[in-house]
């Protein structure tokens, strides 16, 4: 009895080896910009109804602060600081406070797993959510600035600077808020950190820097929104020094890039856990 090899056919011919199946081609990687736009639109439509009432709260809060400060501050540099700080406070309330709460709840509820299954780069998730939340601050910031200028008798000629202040300060504060929410171990702690950040923006941004102790001024320089406040406040002068305005905006933009990079790293760290 003979043993026939398995690779030999009954007719004696050697079976031809089948060529290996071609590897399945992977789809192209998702690009950052289209993914960012998709996340931005989704977040904007999702949060529109829930965040609009909170935007009114942020606007009325800033207007109320200016009315209270009107009895203490008459005009000059202090009035400029109050109006600029109150306007940027609307951005801090939404971009820092609410975004910290959102990412804290998203992490606690397992919502990051949903984004992890999508072909969306981490940077697009962070930037899209930050941009959507920052977009809600535009009407409230403009209304607050106009009301403050009328209340304190400041010129309205250079309010167009808000077109640069809002996105740059919003990026810096939104990145900080997202990082706080993603790094906080519990959503309650994320809410607390967001509230503390907004309180810091209130105390260090609205109050005139000339009346602060030196140690508090140093802490004020570390707050991302400070440079947006300074840039906006400089435009109320009779002859604005635009070189300093551009310098403050550049620093605010640089801080925004760093804070959004930290938020993206925090998102990757939280998504893999």
Structure notes:
By secondary structure, the chain is mainly alpha-helical. Helices cover 73% and strands 0% of the residues. The protein has ten helices and no strands. The chain has helices at residues 32-70, 76-108, 111-116, 122-135, 137-152, 162-183, 187-206, 214-222, 226-234, 242-271. The longest helix is centred in the N-terminal third of the chain and has 39 residues, at 32-70. The chain is elongated and about 55 Å long. Residues 12-16 and 22-27 have low confidence and may be disordered.
In a nutshell, what does this entry contain?
This protein has 273 residues and is mostly helical. The chain has helices spanning 32-70, 76-108, 111-116, 122-135, 137-152, 162-183, 187-206, 214-222, 226-234, 242-271.
Order of helices and strands: HHHHHHHHHH
Overall mean pLDDT score? 82
Low-confidence stretches: 12-16, 22-27
Q: Determine Rg (CA atoms, Å).
A: 26 Å
Distance between the amino and carboxyl termini = 62 Å
Give the SSE layout.
Blueprint: H1 32-70, H2 76-108, H3 111-116, H4 122-135, H5 137-152, H6 162-183, H7 187-206, H8 214-222, H9 226-234, H10 242-271
Helix pairs in contact: 1-2, 1-4, 1-5, 2-4, 2-5, 2-6, 2-7, 2-9, 4-6, 4-10, 6-7, 6-9, 6-10, 9-10
List keywords for this structure.
single chain; 273 residues; mainly alpha; 10 helices; 73% helix; elongated
